[in-house]
């Protein structure tokens, strides 16, 4: 029971990292986009021709499927965004372990 509680606390304390990790896994499992697609972009739905973020998700999907040139053509910042996701996951976990180490060192013996 204590192990389950400890695991639950770990997940809750690092929820942001697990959300980003879930996004990357979802994108990796998503089939490569082709042709028309469903969008929830408010600018696109409002009739604007260009949205600065449109195509970023599809670009990351293409990148995770190894189609680097197509990913770059879809959106130039796809690799940058994926790099930020991975770095953020690392930062969240690093901060968690550093904080717990500081707590252990600060406890009286």
What would your notes on this structure say?
The chain is elongated. The relative contact order is 0.12. The longest helix has 29 residues, at 78-106. It has 109 residues and is mostly helical. It has six helices and no strands. It has helices spanning 2-13, 15-29, 42-45, 56-64, 68-74, 78-106. The two termini are 26 Å apart.
Helices and strands, with pairings:
Layout: H1 2-13, H2 15-29, H3 42-45, H4 56-64, H5 68-74, H6 78-106
Please outline what is shown here.
The chain has helices at 2-13, 15-29, 42-45, 56-64, 68-74, 78-106. By secondary structure, the chain is an all-alpha fold.
What would the keywords be for this entry?
mainly alpha; 70% helix; 109 residues; single chain
Low-pLDDT runs of 5+ residues are: none
How confident overall, as mean pLDDT?
A: 89
For the sheet with most strands, the description reads: none
Based on secondary structure, the structural category is mainly alpha
* Global geometry: elongated
How much is the radius of gyration in Å?
A: 19 Å
Question: Helix and strand succession?
Answer: HHHHHH
Give the distance, in angstroms, between the N- and C-terminal Cα atoms: 26 Å
- Helical residues, percent: 55-70%
Count of β-strands? 0
What's the total helix number?
Answer: 6
Strand content: under 5%
């Amino acid at each position: 029971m204590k192990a389950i509680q400890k695991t639950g606390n770990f997940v809750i304390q690092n929820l942001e990292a697990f959300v980003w990790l879930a996004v990357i896994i979802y994108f990796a499992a998503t089939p490569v986009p082709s042709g028309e697609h469903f969008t929830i972009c408010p600018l696109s739905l409002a009739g604007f021709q260009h949205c600065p973020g449109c195509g970023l998700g599809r670009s990351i999907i293409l990148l995770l499927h190894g189609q680097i040139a197509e990913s770059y053509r879809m959106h130039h910042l796809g690799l940058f965004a994926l790099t930020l996701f991975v770095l953020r996951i690392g930062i969240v976990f690093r901060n968690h372990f550093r904080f717990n180490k500081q707590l252990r060192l600060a406890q009286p013996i």
